[in-house]
From TrEMBL:
Protein name: Reverse transcriptase
Lineage: Eukaryota, Metazoa, Cnidaria, Anthozoa, Hexacorallia
Domain of life: Eukaryota
Length: 197
């Protein structure tokens, strides 16, 4: 459950793809490089990454190194150049925020479209109170208590509602998936680049 083995394999696959792209980078345009990076590197980082909620920071750092290296290859910058401006220019979310994006999107899809029972049964909308509160118009979810702090708070039934309830009400009340994705990425992008990577 520590995800060490999984993250090690993800990093190996992504670095292998990045190594191959680096060998032919001088023959590629920036746009072609971005396409190859998304196909052979970031696709590994993003696959089922909702499972990576609330990992220790050192695990995120391992994955972030892959994304940083991909940004350097894409923009042809030196190994030790500062990476934050490059990620901002490419409009790439850091790994931790990519995980948050995927979790929020999974909750959105579960709430707004037919979803498998094993997902929908874990999301319970908070009932309205009989008092008139500002939060009554918002879609907030019940966050169940967990018995195991280490693993329980990483499970979808706890991590999903936690991420969802932390979103602004304008995002939680959105009903169109395309609009939700754009607004969510904008929100997380601002959040990511106003704090340290």
């Amino acid at each position: 459950m520590s995800m060490n083995t999984h993250i090690g394999k993800v990093c190996n696959k992504a670095f292998r793809g990045l190594y191959n792209i680096r060998q032919i980078r001088k023959y590629l345009s920036a746009e072609s490089t971005k396409c190859l990076i998304h196909a052979f590197v970031t696709s590994h980082l993003d696959y089922c990454n909702a499972l990576l909620q609330k990992l220790p920071q050192y695990q995120y750092d391992r994955l972030q190194k892959v994304l940083n290296a991909a940004a350097r290859v894409t923009c042809l910058i030196p190994k030790f150049a500062h990476i934050t401006p490059v990620l901002r220019e490419l409009h790439w979310l850091p790994v931790k925020f990519r995980v948050e994006f995927k979790s929020a999107l999974l909750v959105f899809k579960t709430l707004n479209s037919p979803a498998p029972q094993y997902l929908s049964e874990h999301l319970v909308v908070k009932p309205r109170t009989r008092y008139s509160l500002l939060s009554d118009s918002e879609t907030l979810l019940v966050i169940p208590k967990v018995t195991r702090k280490t693993f329980g708070d990483r499970a979808f039934f706890h991590a999903g509602p936690t991420v969802w309830n932390a979103l602004p009400s304008s995002l939680r009340n959105c009903r169109k998936i395309d609009s939700f994705k754009v607004q969510l990425k904008t929100y997380l992008f601002k959040k990511a680049f106003t704090c340290n990577l």
